[in-house]
Amino acid sequence: MDRAPEPHAGWTFLTNHSRVLAAIAEDHTVRIRDIAVRCRLTERAVQKIIADLEEGGYLTHSREGRSNVYRIAPDRVLRHPADAPATVAELLSVLLRHEAGQPTASLVDHEGH
């Protein structure tokens, strides 16, 4: 069984909402329990985040048999005005490419400039 490491103290670059959305993007039938382990959250926290994402129009789900199937709204614009006009699809593209080990464009000059 996978065991989640201890939670990180202090600030982070990504929100729990973006982590949960990325987990769902990788597997549209992922279980809440598995999202919680992957994101190092409680199942209750994941349920609340999913509810937030659904309320905001970023995510929907339906029951298929005993499983939930999630659908992400890829064209939704990110919530913070400073992120506009970036979409959910653009955010997930960066996050999923990173997790797949694919190179991303370098934003930093290696000479420190």
Automatic annotation (TrEMBL):
Top-level division of the source organism's lineage: Bacteria
InterPro entries tied to this protein: HTH_MarR-typ, WH-like_DNA-bd_sf, WH_DNA-bd_sf
Coiled-coil portions: none
The HTH marR-type domain, residue ranges: 16-64
SUPFAM superfamilies linked to this entry: Winged helix' DNA-binding domain
Pfam families, alphabetized: MarR_2
The protein's name: MarR family transcriptional regulator
Protein's organism: Streptomyces spinosisporus
